[in-house]
Amino acid sequence: MPHWHWNESGITAVDWKAWDLLIEASGNPSIFLDSRMMKSLMRSEKRNLAAVTWYQGEELVGVAVVEDAVAESLNLDSHISVKRSWFSFISTWLHGSEGKFTFRVRVIGPVLGSGLHSYRWAEHISDFDQRRLLTQTIFSSKSDAGTRIPRVAMLKDLPIHYEGRRRTLHRGWAPLEFDPEMLLHLDPEWNELSDYMEQLNTKARTKIKRVLKVSEGLEISSWSKSRLIEDADAFIALYQRVFDRSGFRLGQLHAAELIESKRFWGDDFVVNGYELDGELVGFQCAYIGHGETEAFFVGFLPELVKSHAIYQRMLIEFIRMGIQCDCGRINMGRTALDIKSSVGALPQRLQCDVRFRNPLFHAMVSRYTRGFDPAELVLKKAWKADAYAKGRHSEIHTT
Questions:
Q1: Among 255, 267, 251, residue whose Cα is nearest residue 299
Q2: What is the pLDDT of residues 71-87, one digit of tens each?
Q3: What element of type H or E holds 209?
Q4: Closest to 19 in 3D by CA, of 264, 270, 269, 32
Q5: Strands 181-185, 372-374: pairing kind
């Protein structure tokens, strides 16, 4: 039987100990499903988020994070490869004269993250029963915020571990594929950044050295909770400078989530501020846990990308964090794929499944979306042939 626990009022209704134990027993830990993350997001006044639980009798057999969010497309054509001539016409019509298409969507999974963090189930719940329970449940609850239930649900992000086009996994859900997430596996023998650089090829290693050189003028320091509270709005303003340039938006970061994450995660939520000549010009934040570094969000003055390589330096600092914390992997997210590949991140394809409440509309959209695939990737090759990160990356499909 499903139970919906919406927003801050739902926090006290969840048995978080049982929640975390179920995730641990699944053998597939998740930073975004961690009870600390759930509570920090559910406390946000600007999100509309639920913790969903399924019980069989007294046994907790399933958990999921669900958020009602607003999706906004500004430049869809740049993210996909069109296979049918009429797709661009329909896309242009949907985006209108302002070039913007906005719609409400119920997201199963973290709006602010990428990867398989949508749900976890007890071992004896079959894949068929998992999707059956999810299908029966997803449109069954209205948020306590008073908003209507969205007309479409999106399940994100199911890893694709095979070559070729995405496949329909479950009847009644239409598969979509956009950009991959970028992952970097860390050699347990690495003790410092120079060990990582030794496994890069000459071209990539030279580029890393150049980034470190041109970014020397940036002063990087870790922000405490009190300092974060003081500067949270400035961080969000810097984040907005990056966010406003994105072509597809699904939710966005707010100051409260930074502060609440620091409160619940402490030192495991790392926030670095970047200053130039005493002025705050950028920040980055990451979660450390379950053997991973989750590169969360960054914000910076765009003009510093060329002059001080600020974004590239942030990627290097995420790698440094992972090495220092003995993490096995860094998840760098699904934007700026080319730059992330230049520091060694490799792609993991992800599939999003969608389901519409209206069966006729669902059939129309399912047919419509068969005509596009994600834009073809042309990424940097940063590693030596025998590099650990390349060999460990089971997600890669072609070399």
A1: 255
A2: 876 655 555 555 555 45
A3: helix 202-214
A4: 32
A5: unpaired
Given a contact cutoff of 8 angstroms between Cβ atoms, the answer to whether 350 and 114 are in contact is yes
Q: Which two tokens stand for residue 99?
A: 């070039």
Cα angle 236, 241, 247 (rounded to 5 degrees) comes to 115
CA distance 167 to 128: 16
Length of the chain: 399
- DSSP at 268: G
Q: Position 106: which residue type?
A: R
Domain shared by 118 and 195, yes or no: no
Q: What domain range is 134 assigned to?
A: 2-180+349-374
Residues 122 and 195 in one domain: no
Together in a domain, 75 and 174: yes
Kindly give the residue spans of alpha helices, DSSP state H, lying in 68-192. Answer: 87-95, 127-137
SS3 141: coil
Asked if residue 349 lies in contact with residue 177, where contact means CB atoms within 8 angstroms, the answer is yes
| pTM (2 d.p.) | 0.89
Q: Given a cut of 80, is residue 399 above it in pLDDT?
A: no
- Is 103 found in the same domain as 86? yes
Mark whether 170 and 230 lie in a shared domain.
no
Q: Tell whether 223 and 315 lie within a shared domain.
A: yes
Amino acid letter, residue 397: H
Residue 397 lies in a domain: no
Q: Are 108 and 33 in contact (CB under 8 A)?
A: no
- Verify that 45 and 162 share a domain, yes or no: yes
Nearest to 37 by CA among 124, 123, 109, 91: 109
